[in-house]
Amino acid sequence: MPKSRIRKKADYTPPPASKQAANIKLTNRGWVAPVMLAMFIIGLAWIVVFYVTNGSLPIDALGNWNIVVGFGFIAAGFGVSTQWK
Questions:
Q1: Residue 39 in contact with residue 73, Cβ under 8 Å?
Q2: 34-37 long-range contacts, Cβ below 8 Å, gap at least 24?
Q3: Cα–Cα distance between 46 and 57 in angstroms, integer?
Q4: What is the pTM of this model?
Q5: Quick one: pLDDT at residue 29?
Q6: What's 53-84 look like in SS3?
Q7: What stretch of H or E contains 45?
Q8: Nearest-angstrom CA–CA distance, 43 and 38
Q9: What is the CA radius of gyration of the chain?
Q10: What pLDDT score does 19 carry?
Q11: Which pLDDT tens digits describe the chain residue by residue (85 residues)?
Q12: How is 27-41 classified by DSSP, letter by letter?
């Protein structure tokens, strides 16, 4: 029975030295952590102030919707946290 021919694999050749690596552009995201923490603290403070003042502050006209506003700030903080790298 005839023997099949074995294909020779090419030896590893490194890429040419003239090609430079692409510059990786890293954006400055130093603003993310302070904004995220500020949103968390503002939301928490909004809810705490609402409960401590028996609903008369921060905005009396909103009534119990002040809780939603506070949780909205907290949710915005979580939204900003997705930008953190």
A1: yes
A2: 35/77, 35/80, 36/77, 36/78, 36/80, 36/81, 36/84, 37/77
A3: 9
A4: 0.65
A5: 81
A6: CCCCCCCHHHCCHHHHHHHHHHHHHHHHHCCC
A7: helix 32-52
A8: 8
A9: 29
A10: 47
A11: 777 777 777 777 777 776 455 555 657 788 899 999 999 999 999 999 999 998 888 888 888 899 999 999 999 999 999 987 7
A12: ---TTHHHHHHHHHH
CA–CA dist 49, 64 (Å, integer): 12
**Cα(61)–Cα(73) distance, integer angstroms:** 18
Q: How far is CA 39 from the centre of its chain?
A: 14
The residue to which tokens 């790298």 are assigned? 85
Amino acid found at 83 = Q
Other CB atoms within a 10 A radius of the CB of residue 70 amount to 21
Predicted confidence at residue 22, as pLDDT, reads 58
